[in-house]
Design brief:
GO molecular function: phospholipase activity
Pfam family, one: Lipase_GDSL
Organism: Culex quinquefasciatus (Southern house mosquito)
Strand content: 5-15%
Oligomer: single chain
Number of helices: 9
Shape: globular
InterPro entries: GDSL, Phospholipase_B, PLB1, SGNH_hydro_sf
Strand order of the largest sheet: 2-3-4
Largest sheet: 3 strands, parallel
Mean pLDDT: 84
Number of strands: 5
Radius of gyration: 19 Å
CATH topology of one domain: Rossmann fold
Protein name: Phospholipase b, plb1
C-alpha cells in the first residue's frame, strides 16, 4: 500500500503483497528472490516476490489516488502534509470495504513519504515558516492514530523526507530543468527566498527529527500487532556524478526533480535494505542499485522494528 505520490509513481507498477505469517510486528517474515532486471526493479516488484496469495488486492499505477483503479494507492499528486489525514481515511475505507481483505488476519505494510512539496512550495509562504513543523506533527499523529485504531496487523514505514536543497547542488542542469525548478520548488530556487535558504534547511532537519520522535512514541508500540519505523535512506541523499563532475541525470525524470525508472530502482533497493537493517543502524544514503541487497537470514528472517532491533 502506497501513501505518497512520489513513491507510487515508481513503486506501483506491480502488486504490493501482504507479508506472511508473523505472530507480531517483531516477527514480520519475508522471503525474497533476487530481481533479474535491476534496471527497472521497483519496491512493488521486490515485494511481489514475497510469498503471498496471488488474488489479494493491491494498488495499481495511476496518476490519481482517488480513482477506483488506484485501489490501495491513496497518494495524490502534489500532496502535502495537510493532505495525509484524508489520504489515510481513504485508504482505510478502501481496505475495510474490500471483500478480499481479511482486516483482522492479513498483515499490512504502509509506506509514507511526505514533505517535498511542503518544503518546495509551502513553508516559504508561512509566517513564520516554522509553523510547518507544528502542522506536520498534528497531521502525522492523526494519520498514525487512524491506522492504529482501524488496521490491526500493520507496519508503517515512514520514509525520511528529502532535503530539497540538493536541487541547488546539481551541476550541468539542462536549461529546461533550471526553469522547471523555479516553478516546482520556488522556496529553494527562486531568488526572492535565497536569503532564507539556511533557515529552511534547518526546518527540514527538524521535520525529520520530529518524524523520528513521533515514530518512537510509546502509543505506537503498545500493541503487539502494530509498529511504526522510520526508514532514513533519503536523509543524506546524494546523486552520482559523471566523470566531468556533472550530476548524472539518468537517475532523474525530464524535469530533473522527480526520479526516473533507474532512480526508482535505486531507491527501491535502498528502502528494502533499510527495512532489514536494525533500528538505530540504518543507512542514511543510497548506493549503486543492487550493489548491496539485504536478504532475510535464518537468524533474522523478519523486517526490523523497534521490538526486534
Amino acid at each position: 500500500m502506497q501513501f505518497n505520490k512520489a513513491l507510487s509513481r515508481g513503486f506501483s507498477r506491480t502488486s504490493i503483497r501482504q507479508l506472511i505469517s508473523p505472530t507480531n510486528t517483531t516477527r514480520l517474515r519475508a522471503k525474497l528472490s533476487r530481481p533479474r532486471d535491476t534496471s527497472s526493479s521497483t519496491f512493488s516488484r521486490i515485494l511481489a516476490r514475497v510469498d503471498s496469495p496471488t488474488d489479494l488486492p493491491h494498488e495499481h499505477h495511476t496518476t490519481e489516488g482517488q480513482t477506483l483503479k488506484a485501489t490501495f494507492n491513496a497518494a495524490e499528486a502534489g500532496g502535502m502534509s495537510q493532505d495525509i489525514p484524508t489520504m489515510a481515511k481513504n485508504l482505510v475505507k478502501r481496505m475495510l470495504s474490500d471483500p478480499k481483505v481479511d482486516i483482522q488476519n492479513h498483515w499490512k505494510l504502509i509506506t509514507l513519504l511526505i514533505g517535498g512539496n511542503d518544503f518546495c512550495s509551502n513553508m516559504c509562504y508561512l509566517n513564520p515558516p516554522e509553523k510547518a513543523l507544528k502542522y506536520h506533527e498534528q497531521n502525522l499523529l492523526a494519520v498514525l492514530r487512524i491506522f492504529r485504531e482501524y488496521l490491526p496487523r500493520t507496519l508503517v514505514n515512514i520514509v525520511a523526507s528529502p532535503n530539497v536543497d540538493i536541487l541547488t547542488q546539481f551541476r550541468g542542469k539542462p536549461q529546461e530543468c533550471v526553469t522547471l525548478h523555479v516553478l516546482e520548488c520556488p522556496c529553494f530556487m527562486a531568488t526572492r527566498f535565497a536569503s532564507q535558504r539556511q533557515r529552511y534547511i534547518k526546518i527540514i532537519e527538524r521535520w525529520n527529527r520530529l518524524q523520528e520522535d513521533i515514530a518512537n512514541r510509546t502509543e505506537f508500540h503498545s500493541k503487539p500487532d502494530f509498529s511504526v519505523v522510520v526508514q532514513p535512506f533519503i536523509s543524506d541523499l546524494s546523486f552520482p556524478k559523471k566523470p566531468n563532475g556533472d550530476t548524472d541525470f539518468s537517475y532523474m525524470s525530464y524535469d530533473c526533480f522527480h526520479l526516473s525508472q533507474k532512480g526508482y530502482a535505486r531507491s527501491a533497493n535502498a528502502l528494502w535494505n533499510n527495512m532489514f537493517e536494525p533500528v538505530g543502524r540504518k543507512a542514511h544514503d543510497w548506493e549503486q542499485e543492487f550493489s548491496r541487497f539485504i536478504c532475510p537470514t535464518p537468524e533474522m528472517p523478519y523486517i526490523r522494528t523497534r521490538g526486534n532491533s
